[in-house]
Specification:
about 475 residues; binds nicotinamide-adenine-dinucleotide; alpha/beta; Rossmann fold
Amino acid sequence: MHKEIKLTVSGTGFVGLITAGVFADRGFSTMALDVDEKKVAAVNKGETFFFEPHLPDLIKRVVLEKKTLTASTERIKSIQESNVTLICVGTPSKSDGSCDLSYIESAAKDIGQALAQKDGYHLVVAKSTIVPETTRTLIKTIIEKESNKKAGIDFGLCMSPEFLREGQSVHDTIFPDKIVIGQFDEKSGKKLEAIFQHLYREENDEFSGTWETIFGKKVTCPKILRRSIETAECIKYANNSFLATKISFINEFANICERVPGVDIKHIAEAIGLDFRINPKFLQAGAGFGWSCFPKDVNAMITFAKEHNHNPKLLESVMAVNAQQAKRMVQLTEEIVGDLKEKQIAILGLSFKPETDDMRNAPSIIIIDELLSKGANVIAWDPQAIEEAKKENDLGNKITFANSLEEIFDNTDACLLVTEWKQFKKLEAKDFKKMKKPVVIDGRRIYDYKKFRKEGIIYAGIGLGEIIN
Ligand code: NAD
C-alpha cells in the first residue's frame, strides 16, 4: 500500500517531524513541509532541531539511508505531488486563552490552492489540536473555496488527533494506545484506517525489528476508533483536560497534606493509585504542569465553553491550582531561608519535564519570575534546555546559567529541584553539602528525605507534612 500513498506533512514542528519520520521509516514516501527554511534545511541534511530521544537516528535513517523523507518549503507544489496531507501546524494560545487558528487557516489555504490544480482524490487529515467544529467550518470551507472542489467527493477529510508525550514521542507514535479517526464521510475514514493499519501491520520486517530492539515490544495495530469529526476534536481536549485535572487534583491534596503532621502525599498517591478506577499515572505531586499542550488546551476549552454559554468551573480550578503550585516552591523556600532579597537560589531543571528541551509554559518560568520579584539572584542548570530557556521571558538577560551541574552549588542559599532529570536523581546529600547551607526544596519528590535529613540537609518537599515518626 505504501507505494500508492505519497504523503505530505504540513508543519514540520514537533508533531510533524516525528509523524513524518515514522511514516517514512515504514516506507511511505513522505515530504515534510514548513515555512521555516532552517527547519527544512536541517531535515534535508538528516538532522533534527530539537532534543527528543531516538529522533536523531530515525531522521538520519529515513533521510540519508532509506531516502523516504525529504523536506520542502514549496508547499503547494509538494501537496500537488502527493495524495494524502496531514496537517500538523501549531495551534498556540491567543492572549485571551482561545486557540489561534491562523496557521491552520494558512495550511488549509495551501491545500485548497494545490487541489485547485490537481486531478484525483486527495485525503486531508487534521492532526493538530483544534477546537470543536474547526475541521468542518474552517478547514473544509477554506479548501472548498480555494479549490472549487467538494469534500466527500473530490477530496477526503478526517480529523485524527495526536496524543504523543514529549520525551517519549517516538515510542508513542510507534506504540500509541489508540488511534482516533474523525471522518467527514465513510470513504475518508476507511482510507485513513487502511493507512494506519498498514503503518502498524504486524510483520517481521526491518521496521518492526528496529523498534522491537529499541523498545522491547512488537509493533501491533492499536484500537482504531472511527467517530464523527467533532467527536475526534473533543476527544483530544477531553484527554488533555482529564490528565491536567489529575495533576491539579494531586497537587491540591499535596497542599492539604503539608498541613497534616505525619502525612506524605506520596503515600496517599500510592494507595489511591492501587484503586483500578483511579490508576497510579499522573498522580505525582509537584511544581505543576507545563508543556505546550496542557495549559493551552485547557485554556482553549475554557474559552470555548464560555463562548458557548457554559461556565467550566472544574477546568478553571485546574488552571488556578496549577498557577499557584509553581509559586508554592517559592513559599517553601521562604519558609526555610526567610527574606529572599540578595539570596542566591539555584534552579535544577528548566524544561517542563525531563528528556525534552521544550520550555513552553514550563513551571520554572513562573518560579524564576517569582524569585526575581522577591529580589533573589537566580542561577540555573538543565542538561538540555539552557539555550531554549534563554529565549523565554528574557531569561537570557535576567538570570545566570551555570556551565555545569557542579557550578550550581557554589555560594547558593537554596536548591530548588524543578525538573526530575536523571542527572539530578543521582545527586546525594554530599553534593548539596557543597552549598553555603544545604537547603533543598524538592519540587518533584525525587529524594529520600529521611536520608537527606539524617545527613544534615534541610529538606522541604511538595506534599510533605511535618514528620512525626
Ligand atoms: P510546533 O510549533 O512545534 O510546529 C508547528 C510547525 O508548523 C512550525 O515548524 C511552523 O513553522 C509550521 N508552520 C506554520 N504554518 C505553516 C504552514 N502554512 N505550512 C507549513 N508549516 C507551517 O507545534 P507542535 O508542537 O508540533 O504542535 C502541532 C500541533 O500538534 C498543535 O496543534 C499541538 O497542540 C498538537 N500536539 C502537540 C503535541 C506536542 O507534544 N508538541 C502533542 C500532541 C498534539
